[in-house]
């Protein structure tokens, strides 16, 4: 039975009213800053007086900045290391975990999750890397192996930043949740056809995980291209500029050099780079094996 | 209070100083002109380097010096200006890559960290960590802040054990002198402002708390007189109303005792030297814009940390830093700046002639026509 027009209108109105606070919050804290960034990117922006329109000057300054290339190289290096280590390894570990008894899986998940819950973990890693007093060099010395300079070595510093991500970032939990939702019958059918562990992984597990992997890869790319807090807390971007990433440079331009226009222009460039990477990635994952 | 707004000179002893282990100096046979363990009052950065080397003992886990790898020798050491007038007049300033002392300072930092191995440092080392290293007897010298050492001697006299009274174990010295005997002291006097909307009782409580916090009970009289000096003029103030919630419980009233009976000679000497020190003219006093301090400091510190941690060619490093700084931080200037720069340089010349004649004769005069050339 069709509802009277008044009731329908009331329902629409009340739906909008209930949604409105969320929409306003999304607009002011989500969309507006993004839209405003495209304005500031073309302005000489001051904290205490009116902004001036400067056209593409900020983008020209970004192009001429001698640190930009280093910052992008560092960021891409971090992204590659980070995605390689924190993305691929947890998939494999999750699949191996699923072969264990249910009780063990539960305990392993708890153990895996504990460090994820601790943001103080980053600061702890800083001390673990201490060349003289840190745990890692202590272990190496205990094994009569040569100690390392860790964060103080420009060649090693970026790798040191990725390592905590392997433990502190917990995509493995999401993979385990996805793995648990795969129907047992698919594995049984594969076994009936004589499939071993690796064949089951190839024909059942990975195709079933594909949508989750695609989503997590997008998160990984976005997250690693925007890395900030790890180098900010652990190295301050050093030694030299060995761990200065793009977002760190954006931060330094905005709040160190007080050049908000150039900082925003650089943020827009990064936004475009990330969007391009995601579009390429989506094209790669478009085919649906299901 | 009583209808007036009061401020407090937060840093009567506000200057970076060297804190050192007197017992280590005694063991190494390093004594000052009074025959006490410590550096001479006219020590130089070369003395500093040699002392750090002497104090270092790898077997005992001792380093001569602990600190942030990018602070050491940073311009104080060679009295370097990191930016100087642009002789072409295209902009106000350029990075000071023409000064041969910059290369020498980088070479010295690299040598201390990698050849002498007398420096305990790390890219992640911060203020609290090098103080902890000092307290844990891993370092013989550190940078510290003027008031902290005397205050610790009152607050924690047994920090190094009952048989090692703090004031007899920890010494304080002015930073080593740069070329031409120029002082490394840079007094800082940020006044603390109080919220004028507070009641007189609240203001008084905040005032009392700050006296205790910044000076212990000892420096109150000195600090009151400092309030009237010109040192607080023109500085920004900050609000400390929140401090009211903290209790003020002085341990002992030392107000009426002369400072000399409370502290050892080296503390008093530093205190007197800070009070007698003079700050050179600043560009902003002549209407000249300066680069953003934080970002400029970051670029210079990155240069020093790269010099320590890599084998990069130092001349190439200086050129790269100059390119970065000139492009990102010094790309400004206007037509009036040439005249302003001239007046600024004249003021500095007069300052050095008056207060540092040896520096003027041996260093400043020579560099004035080269490194500090005004368009």
Major sheet: arrangement of strands of chain A: 1-2
Roughly how many Å is the radius of gyration of chain B? Answer: 22 Å
pLDDT averaged over residues of chain A: 85
Shape of chain B: globular
- Overall average residue pLDDT of chain B: 80
Based on secondary structure, the structural category of chain A is: mainly alpha
| Gyration radius of chain A, in Å | 24 Å
**Helix/strand order of chain B, N-terminal first:** EEHHEEEHEHEHHEEHHHHHHHH
- Taking the alpha carbons of the first and last residues of chain B, their distance comes to 51 Å
CATH homologous superfamily descriptor of chain A: MetI-like
Return the domain count of chain A: 1
> Which pair of chains has the greatest number of interface residues, and how are they split between the two chains?
A-B, 30 and 25 residues
Number of strands of chain B: 9
Range of strand content of chain B = 5-15%
Helix content range of the residues of chain B, please? Answer: 40-55%
Q: What oligomeric state do the depicted chains represent?
A: heterodimer
Question: What would your notes on this structure say?
Answer:
The complex is a heterodimer of chains A (290) and B (375). Chain A has helices at residues 5-40, 57-64, 66-97, 102-116, 121-128, 135-142, 157-168, 171-180, 184-192, 197-225, 229-234, 246-255, 260-284; strands at 43-44, 52-53. Chain A has one domain: Orthogonal Bundle (MetI-like fold), CATH 1.10.3720.10. A two-stranded antiparallel sheet of chain A has the order 1-2. Chain A is built from 13 helices and two strands; from the N terminus they run H-E-E-H-H-H-H-H-H-H-H-H-H-H-H. By secondary structure, chain A is mainly α. Chain A is 72% helix and 1% strand. By secondary structure, chain B is α/β, with parallel strands linked by helices. Chain B has a domain at 7-12 and 187-276. Chain B has 14 helices and nine strands. The longest helix of chain B has 19 residues, at 337-355. The radius of gyration of chain B is 22 Å and the shape is globular. Chain B starts with 6 loop residues before the first strand and ends in a 7-residue tail after the last helix. In chain B, 41% of the residues are buried.
